[in-house]
Amino acid sequence: MVSLKIAIAGTRGVPPRYGGFETFAAELSTRLVARGHEVSVYCRAGGGEWGVGSGSGSGPTPAPGELAVRGESGAKTSPTPHPRHPTPWHGVQRIVLPALRHKYFETVSHTFLSALDALRRDFDVILLCNAANAFVLPLLRAARIPVAINVDGIERRRRKWNVMGKAVYAIGESFSALFASRVVADADVIADYYRGRYGIEPVMIPYGAEFPIEEDSDVLDRLGVQSGNYILYVSRFEPENNPLEVVRAYEGVGSGGWGVGEETTGVADRESGVGTLRPPTPDSRPSLVKGVGSGGWGVGEETTGVGSRESGVGEESTGSPLVGNARSGNILDAGTRRSSDASLPPPTPHSPPPLIMLGSASYARDLEAELHSHASERILFPGALFGADYRTLQRHALVYIQATEVGGTHPAMIEAMASGGCVLAHDTPENREVGGDAVGYFKLRPSETLSRAIQECLDSPARRAQMRIAARARAAEKYGWTAVTDAYERLFSEIAR
Questions:
Q1: Cα separation of 317 and 323, whole Å?
Q2: Do residues 278 and 181 lie in contact, with contact meaning Cβ atoms separated by under 8 Å?
């Protein structure tokens, strides 16, 4: 295949430090570079950086396949321009430009500058992310630059947007249909929407999910939780992701002795990727690689480490010496393990395992404050965790909760499935398309059924084991970065000038 000069715009850039689009840009760009293409990713300036290919500004550079569930600072002051010499990131050229730090203008201001910059760079094709950025399509089309746009979900339905924000997305949908060379949807539900509303034929290319083979981090020790004995939620804290509803539903769960001692699941053999039964002992926590004292509760319950579990979520730490959030009271020194006597007490017959709320707010500060008012020894808010910490938490969760109500394919849900997780998902068409019969579903409105869904999972080890097997198989069959990269490479070759 002919080598192409490709740009990816409309995300916060690489290394990925925010959400799904950033991981997408990192995973796709590095794979395209490995295939011989020249790829540039437009990145938002932060911490005083500005220029072409400048470094990330803090902390170690993560390897491809590592995303953060992390919010931006929310600062409204623009960074001071400070050009630097080009420094590729895993072979990907970074083009760093400033943005207005405002909820409604940050994305569009950066994309506008990216489009202006692209006019002078002779790209063969541009991949634009997010329908809100479609306003630059007429400009790029006038310059005869082929552009494919990944529209994400039906973003105007997000509750965080006011009338103006919803209007921007509605216009973006129309501009995507009118001016893009091709519209890309990551779910059939989204493709059907554009097909029915705008009379176009989108290209359906799903998201990918792969976990690297690696040792567990010590994050379970630092948080004082045990393998197979906690519930995990991963998302930005925004209204349509329903973090507060998840916390309230969890508070309504009462366990009647939820199957402790009734099962073990396959502990992964890292060389072969084949799970083998290995019952835990009273003084060891079942783990993929490292054994950690269990404290005696949950023994014989289960571990979630199975296979080689490859992932794309979880980016390396950006250099903060703390893991946690000051408002939650759950701040732990990243280099220090919490002592065993500081670990969470075992659940009583009437209490569920602890809930870990992994994420942070970018602009929804009132929501974040209300969430942290629920913080306790059973509801933990460790903030933004990255890389091996994130993947370790996914691997060892008893139950994973996906509560999003808007969007196409949600990366964390696919990664939970790929890691052999027992997944409970908000009952939306998009989540059902991803999960099929391999996950459980709940509703939050008009009546909440999540509490009952959690209880049923806790009460049935056999059901959890079946869901894990089905979820991993479905993720392996439908979602993989090699197939995703193949599809984008074909698309770019078709529309390139």
A1: 9
A2: no
Query: Residue 216 corresponds to which tokens in the numbers above?
Result: 């567990």
**What pLDDT score was predicted for residue 211?**
76
Token readout for 130 is 């997010």
Q: Rounded to two decimals, what is the model's pTM? A: 0.73
**Segment 220-224 long-range contacts (CB within 8 Å, at least 24 positions apart):** 220/285, 220/292, 220/392, 220/393, 220/396, 221/292, 221/337, 221/338, 222/323, 222/332, 222/334, 222/336, 222/337, 222/338, 223/330, 223/332, 223/338, 223/356, 223/380, 223/382, 224/338, 224/342, 224/343, 224/344
pLDDT score for 396:
96
Return the biggest CA–CA distance within the chain.
Answer: 69
Consecutive sets of 10 residues in the chain, 497 residues long: mean pLDDT of each? 95 83 93 98 69 33 39 34 64 95 86 97 97 96 97 69 75 96 95 95 92 90 97 93 97 63 35 32 33 33 36 35 33 32 48 94 87 97 87 96 88 93 96 96 94 96 97 93 96 95
Alpha-carbon distance values, 244 to 165, 239, 323, 471 (Å)? 23, 8, 22, 26
Question: DSSP letters of 90-114?
Answer: TTBEEEEE----STTTHHHHHHHHH
Q: How many whole angstroms separate alpha carbon 322 and alpha carbon 279?
A: 34
Domains within the chain, CATH numbers bracketed = 5-208+480-495 (3.40.50.2000), 219-478 (3.40.50.2000)
What is the model's pLDDT at position 23?
85
> What distance in Å separates the CA atoms of residue 394 and residue 212, rounded to the nearest whole number?
13
Q: Could you tell me the CA-to-CA distances from 78 to 50, 99, 100 in Å, in that order?
A: 11, 7, 6
Element (H, E) at 402: strand 399-402
CA atoms of 497 and 492, how far apart (whole Å): 9
